[in-house]
Design brief:
heterodimer, A: alpha/beta, Rossmann fold, 2 domains, six-stranded mixed sheet, 17 helices, globular, B: mainly beta, Neuraminidase, four-stranded antiparallel sheet, 5 helices, 12% helix
Chain lengths: 498, 364
């Protein structure tokens, strides 16, 4: 069963004359897990979109089971047995799980009951714990992922492509996902998965292909790779020591207490949560999805509201505060860098300069009725330089940037407000390794400047590399605190689960 | 009128003063059990305060002044009344507060008669410390209640604490500042005076002119005495931790009035220096024990804590004895010969911890 199920030869895709992928040769074996890694902009997504019929090749060829094909639409690709699970899932949020599963396969007359029974049986056969009658919008990231996978399997896909499948999953959910992928492999399905987390590629894949700047760099068995070799292949330089480096030998001492959260409640996510954040320190907050981390800090920054009755207390610089909207929190010196940058982080069709300038406008005490183009351009130019945003110019639209550069724009939008307390929620999610290093350096610099920094992350190496103190959250409250000097992955995970 | 409406609304909504929350022990105050590993130097009947002349340890134990040099204590002198505060002076002298109402200053530790005696306004002197200008700083916990009646002062929301400067050269007393919620502990910090205000859970700095600046707010404990630490900064002791139960009772005047009138003070809902002696002790709305074992994280009726403060007054690290510990009610600490010596008033112990071990074990 080692025959080639899918292959690409000399695959080239040009966008406006610029190659996104350039003469890439790629082959996928039957019942193989194949990891595709590379920095943002390396061409991973374009390559997989070609396979999934989302884009067509400018030149080169593609075969499925030895037959020359050129799918022009996702439907054509699906008929060839190729399904793609996107990073931003493609489910319809207002429909139920069962309706999403059978979307596009409806008959002339559909009995809901029949769909639900079929969906239930199918989900059970995959051992997926998802209720078919549940509305998709109410599901967590992991369950949405399950529905996406189930849909792909339901369509008899022999090749399933996952784009950053674990970005939104907690460590426990990741383990479950890995089991699932291995199970699919046993069923004879070939898997391609794109991931920025190299440990996942090393752990899960049979073979790894590395792309750089749209070109194929290397494909080899996983046993012949280690972290350093992958990183070197990805970026052409050795970053392994700077990225999630050795355990901390020294931590920053805590300064004055900037934020105090006492008995904060927001049913059902935050339950009597209490914590402090100190100046001149990075406070890492770790927890599984549903641990109430994001919600707690969204309440602090006025994005969400605590319970109306007995909702607890938030003190900023020892004074009680209650923000009903984010604007007063911004003015008081709190910046929240969202985990969902595409929805909450920026206006994707606005320019970098305009987005950064919007951050500044939020800081003005009584708002602004007009916008200064000169100020906007100056802000854009300054922050593009300061955060090393890689863009052709400050007028380029944010949607055209890579994930790492988009994240830098979101950070710039917050930093221009000169915050005293800055909260990073999953700061490097969907960001390439080069940008991770730069974002980490920036976060460290902010703490060294004396600002109170909070980093919420589901990725343990990131939490351990950045934090001076680590708060572990479980079921809506902080349950454990570790100094970075005493923390180990095992201790943190134990506290997060038990 | 608006304040009344706001107060009613706050009570209904659980906001403002009615939030009834207690800051968490985190950051530099992250709990440990370091105090439970301390060596017991001595067990006393009523230890109250500590001082050192650099070679030996002076202990105020009830009315007795003990000297500990080596393993066995010797009685330096027995006073007619209990000692409520003790301090050695840079000149080699000794200052002793008796029952909180009188301060005697001696030229030497062994001197028989005091060189100066201060009385008058003093009512509940609980801490003495030499000031940089040669005077003696005295914190007077309450002008309404005696030095041993601090729990009642708390239940009455006492705000009559004062800080005095006693000048042994001119035999004069100057009131530096007042209106404190139980002033308990002071130390000279340059020309200013750093004072613990127990009922307001904070540290304040008082300038020579009486101007007050808050150094540390919202402590999760009731701070007590302060002493200088080697290498700059201070040691702050805290005689117990705050709990939501006590915070709640402090918001209920009618309940407090009845409790004071009808219940044996031993079983009042107040902070304690020791606990676990009787099933009648008031519990908080949480399980204290599981399978007969005290949970260390249970809401504590009594607690032991010493905080190492930096020169800026901010906590650096702390030593704890949690709910399941014994060394509770830490009221005094002093550095002597590479050790930190403390009084755990709850069990009546003088404890010793090597400073080198503390810095390794307790630093976060």
């Amino acid at each position: 069963m080692t025959g080639i199920v899918l292959s690409l030869s000399k695959a080239t895709k040009l966008y406006g004359g610029v190659p996104a992928i350039d003469s890439v040769d790629f082959d996928l074996r039957r019942a193989e897990i194949h990891a595709l890694v590379g920095e943002n902009g390396a061409g991973k997504s374009t390559l997989t979109k070609v396979m999934a019929g989302v884009v067509t090749l400018t030149s080169g060829g593609m075969t499925v089971d030895g037959v020359e094909v050129a799918p022009k639409t996702p439907l054509e690709a699906r008929h060839l047995g190729i399904a793609m699970v996107f990073q931003e899932n493609s489910l319809v949020p207002t429909m139920t799980v069962a309706q999403n599963l059978f979307l596009g396969q409806e008959k002339f007359y559909n009995r809901l009951r029949g769909i639900y029974i079929a969906a239930q049986q199918f989900l059970q056969s995959l051992n997926f714990d998802v209720t078919p009658t549940a509305t998709v919008s109410g599901l967590g990231a992991a369950k949405k992922q399950m529905v996406e996978i189930a849909r792909a399997v339901l369509h008899n896909a022999k090749v399933i492509i996952f784009d950053e499948p674990t970005a939104t999953l907690t460590p426990e959910e990741k383990k479950y996902f890995f089991d699932l992928v291995r199970d699919l492999k046993k069923r004879g399905v070939s898997i391609i998965f794109i991931s920025h987390a190299l440990e996942e590629a090393l752990l899960l894949a049979d073979r790894i292909t590395v792309l750089r700047d749209g070109k194929h760099v290397v494909t080899d068995d996983v046993s012949k790779f280690d972290r350093t070799r992958i990183v070197q292949a990805m970026v052409g330089r050795d970053l392994s020591n700077t990225l999630y480096g050795a355990p901390k030998q020294k931590v920053r001492p805590s300064g004055r207490r900037v934020l105090t959260v006492q008995n904060l409640k927001m049913a059902p996510m935050v339950k009597n949560n209490s914590l402090s954040v100190f100046a001149g320190q990075i406070t890492g907050v770790f927890g599984l999805v549903g641990a109430g981390r994001t919600e707690t800090f969204k309440i602090v920054s006025g994005v969400m509201k605590r319970d109306f009755f007995h909702g607890g207390e938030v003190l900023l610089n020892e004074k009680p505060v209650r923000y009903l909207v984010p604007a007063p929190a911004v003015k008081a010196g709190i910046a929240y860098v969202t985990e969902d940058r595409k929805v909450e982080g920026f206006f994707e069709t606005a320019s970098i300069a305009r987005n950064v300038y919007l951050g500044l406008l939020a800081k003005f005490p009584s708002g602004r009725a007009w916008m200064s183009r000169r100020e906007s351009n100056a802000a854009g130019k300054t922050w593009i330089e300061r955060l090393k945003v890689r863009a052709i110019g400050d007028e380029i639209k944010v949607v055209e940037l890579s994930g790492g550069n988009q994240q830098k724009v979101v950070i710039a939008k917050s930093l221009i407000q000169e915050p005293e307390l800055i909260i990073f929620d999953e700061p490097t999610r969907g960001v390439d390794v080069g940008a991770i290093v730069e974002i980490h350096e920036l976060i460290n610099k902010l703490a060294d400047e004396g600002r109170a920094v909070v980093v919420i992350s589901s990725y343990l190496p990131e939490i351990m590399a950045l934090s001076d103190r680590i708060l572990v959250s479980r079921q809506g409250k902080v349950v454990e605190e570790f100094s970075a000097l005493e923390a180990t992955e095992e201790k943190i995970m134990y506290a997060a689960i038990h | 009128m608006i304040a009344t409406i706001r107060e009613i609304a706050n009570r209904i909504l659980g906001r403002g003063e009615a939030t009834i929350t207690v800051p968490s022990f985190d950051g530099a105050l992250k709990p440990n059990q370091t105090l439970e590993s301390a060596t017991i130097l001595l067990e006393c009947e009523a230890p109250e305060d500590l001082a050192t002349d650099g070679d030996s340890l002076l202990i105020a134990d009830g009315a007795r002044l003990l000297r500990l040099a080596g393993s066995s204590p010797t009685t330096v002198r027995t006073f007619e009344r209990p000692i409520s505060a003790l301090a050695t002076l840079p000149s080699g002298g000794l200052a002793v507060a008796l029952s909180g109402t009188e301060v005697h200053v001696y030229d030497t530790i062994a001197a028989k008669t005091p060189a100066s005696v201060f009385t008058g306004e003093l009512h509940a002197v609980n801490s003495l410390a030499p000031a940089s200008d040669g005077t003696l700083i005295a914190t007077d916990g309450s002008s309404a209640r005696g030095v041993g009646d601090w729990a009642r002062d708390l239940m009455e929301l006492g705000q009559t604490g004062r800080v005095f400067l006693l000048d042994p050269r001119t035999h004069t007393t100057r009131r530096l500042a007042g209106g404190f919620g139980y002033a308990f502990g002071a130390v000279a910090s340059g020309s200013d005076v750093l004072v613990s205000e127990s009922w307001r859970h904070r540290l304040i700095s008082i300038s020579p002119h009486g101007a007050i600046r808050v150094v540390l707010h919202h402590l999760p404990v009731y701070p007590s005495r302060l002493v200088p630490a080697t290498g700059g900064g201070f040691w702050l002791t805290a005689f117990t931790a705050r709990t939501q139960l006590v915070e709640f009772v402090l918001r209920e005047p009618a309940y407090r009035r009845r409790m004071i009138a009808e219940i044996d003070p031993e079983y009042w809902v107040v902070p304690r220096l020791r606990s676990g002696g009787s099933f009648k002790e008031p519990l908080q709305g949480a399980h204290i024990k599981t399978m007969g074992v005290m949970k260390p994280w249970a809401p504590p009726r009594s607690y032991g804590l010493v905080v190492r403060l930096g020169a800026d007054g901010l906590p650096r690290y702390s030593l704890h004895s949690r709910a399941d510990g014994v060394n509770h009610g830490i009221v005094a600490a002093v550095e002597l010969g590479g050790d930190l010596v403390m009084i755990a008033k709850g069990p009546g112990r003088i404890l010793k911890l090597p400073l080198s071990a503390i810095s390794e074990a307790a630093r976060p």
